[in-house]
Amino acid sequence: MAQKEWIDKDYYGVLGVPSSAGADEIKKAYRKIARDNHPDSHPGDAAAEERFKAASEAYSVIGDKDKRAEYDELKAMAASGTGGFGGSFGDYGGYRGSSRGFSGFTGDGESFDIGDLFGGMFGSGGGQGTRTTRRSRGADVETEITLDFREATKGVTVPIRLTSPAPCTVCHGSGARPGTSVTRCTTCGGDGIISENRGAFGFSRPCPDCNGTGTRIEDPCTACGGSGRVTRTRTITVRVPAGVVDGQKVRLAGQGEAGERGRAAGDLFVTVHVRPDKLFTRSGDDLKVTVPVSFTELALGDTITVPTLDSKVRVRVPAGTADGTTLRVRGRGVTKRNGNSGDLLVTVRVTVPRHLDEGAASALRRYAEEEKRSGFDPRANWAGN
């Protein structure tokens, strides 16, 4: 969408947030509207689809730091009566000509260059500027997926269904009816901008005949109305790299909304959510697991079998290991992007039997007597003893 069209749009109102809202608040509002009105959840509901499109359009502007700054500046100028497009010279108050087009002065007599103010909208001040790539590019799209813990740590490829503007399959994105072509706008010579001189002053504005695109379509495609894109549902394969963490985004360049009339598409950002695992947790690239052991395994030492993401490993528990000790197994954790792996951190916890048969109980009583006779006191040097 061209910036000149922003003047009639209330993107904050569309998302239901104040103009002072932070980036996280804007994103949260957009996601809620998109989730509640997604075409996949409301097939055939034209009103929901329009709300979905409006929210996507709003977020593509005020969800982008640079675009939001331009939008806020443009709306502020419109509110104060200093930002008209194509109005008379009187609309601009005290401005005077400059080599770049327009310059102005403040009430304190300090001068400033209007080219800096309008540069983001018209290219370069009052000259024959060119449209910026950001204006032509399609909007970015965000979606979410949820993976199991082991899928996220090992990496996985998943298909997702996405409903968004995509290139028209009839005109292949050109916007012109098959058999015809897009022509250069004769009004602006293909620049998308026209310049006007009024006495000693001059200014530039988007060409009204081509809406600043620099091209004309005499015979538009009937399938897309000349925009070169249509809203459709498609399946995209997303490769999630190994080691992704909860909340991390995966970027797919060029898989967002298609640009108008064959221009570059935006990007797709996939936010990954990870379900907790019953056994494992993570600490960076290290994998953590807690293993139940018996008192005798810790006291006498033993070798225990411990699960990993792929198989099982045998871990030696030294004699006299304290309850809660963490043992490290090198290279059996989460695979890093460089191909190396973190470690497996094994924490041992004593499990006490609730019931003992008479033989085991008798043996344990004999052990307790021998333990006292040896002088062992588990509470020695504890609590002032």
From TrEMBL:
Q: Which Gene Ontology biological process is one annotated for this entry?
A: DNA replication
Q: Which cofactor does it need?
A: Zn(2+)
Record-annotated CR-type domain positions: 155-233
Q: Which UniProt keywords apply?
A: Chaperone, Cytoplasm, DNA replication, Metal-binding, Repeat, Stress response, Zinc, Zinc-finger
Co-factor: note: Binds 2 Zn(2+) ions per monomer.
Indicate where this protein resides in the cell.
Cytoplasm
Zinc fingers, CR-type, are found at 155-233
The segment(s) forming the J domain are: 10-75
Which segments carry the CXXCXGXG motif repeats? 168-175, 185-192, 207-214, 221-228
Q: What's the stated role of this polypeptide?
A: Participates actively in the response to hyperosmotic and heat shock by preventing the aggregation of stress-denatured proteins and by disaggregating proteins, also in an autonomous, DnaK-independent fashion. Unfolded proteins bind initially to DnaJ; upon interaction with the DnaJ-bound protein, DnaK hydrolyzes its bound ATP, resulting in the formation of a stable complex. GrpE releases ADP from DnaK; ATP binding to DnaK triggers the release of the substrate protein, thus completing the reaction cycle.
Q: Which family does it belong to?
A: Belongs to the DnaJ family.
Name under which the protein is recorded = Chaperone protein DnaJ
* Organism (species): Corynebacterium provencense
